[in-house]
């Protein structure tokens, strides 16, 4: 039976405070899950390789286990669900591209999709062909340059909207 902790949202409903996003994460790749742990004091979560389900982790859970590949990443750009399951897009390399107000802006040099789908074994040949086509599109997205991001500023807002929202210069 699920507890309240199991059903708690992974992300808070309130907007992020400046500086509250993790700038570096440790990615631990186990056979059954991916574990993402903040290297700058934040939280941790796991994504099941079987179905892409998300689960928050305690610090102890995030550090447990040693039979895994460990690497540093710079963010989780998103998650997409296709026919066979989910894929997590992570930023594996970045460079400082400049600043916007008091916020540093980064350019994602490289990204990688992490596969979370055991269902591919049960697809029909037509579904496998469709999945392969969708994956070819994801590989293009993976290698396309042009993603710029900031950890503490919404770059999609116009400057005037950012100032109205309390994200202006000097905040």
Structure description:
- The chain is globular, with a radius of gyration of 18 Å.
- The chain has four helices and nine strands.
- The longest helix has 19 residues.
- A hairpin with a 5-residue loop joins strand 2 and strand 3.
- The chain has one domain.
- It is α+β, with helices and mostly antiparallel strands.
- The strands form two sheets. It has a five-stranded antiparallel sheet with strand order 4-3-2-1-5. Strands 6-7-8-9 form a four-stranded antiparallel sheet.
- Kindly report the oligomeric state of this protein: single chain
> Compute the gyration radius: what is it?
18 Å
Strand content: 35-45%
Order of strands across the biggest sheet? 4-3-2-1-5
Largest sheet: 5 strands, antiparallel
Helicity level, as a percent range?
A: 10-25%
Poorly predicted runs are 1-16
Structural class, from secondary structure content? alpha+beta
Count of discrete domains: 1
Task: Please give the number of β-strands.
Answer: 9
H-E string: HEEEEHEEEEHEH
Number of helices: 4
Task: Categorize the overall geometry.
Answer: globular
Distance between the termini: 44 Å
User: What is the typical, i.e. mean, pLDDT?
Assistant: 81
Blueprint of the fold:
Layout lengths: L3 H4 L17 E5 L3 E6 L5 E5 L5 E4 L1 H5 L5 E5 L1 E7 L4 E15 L2 E14 L8 H19 L4 E2 L9 H6 L7
Antiparallel strand pairs: 1-2, 1-5, 2-3, 3-4, 6-7, 7-8, 8-9
Question: What key phrases describe this protein's structure?
Answer:
single chain, alpha+beta, five-stranded antiparallel β-sheet, 4 helices, globular, disordered N terminus, SAC domain-containing protein, SAC_dom, phosphatidylinositol-4-phosphate phosphatase activity
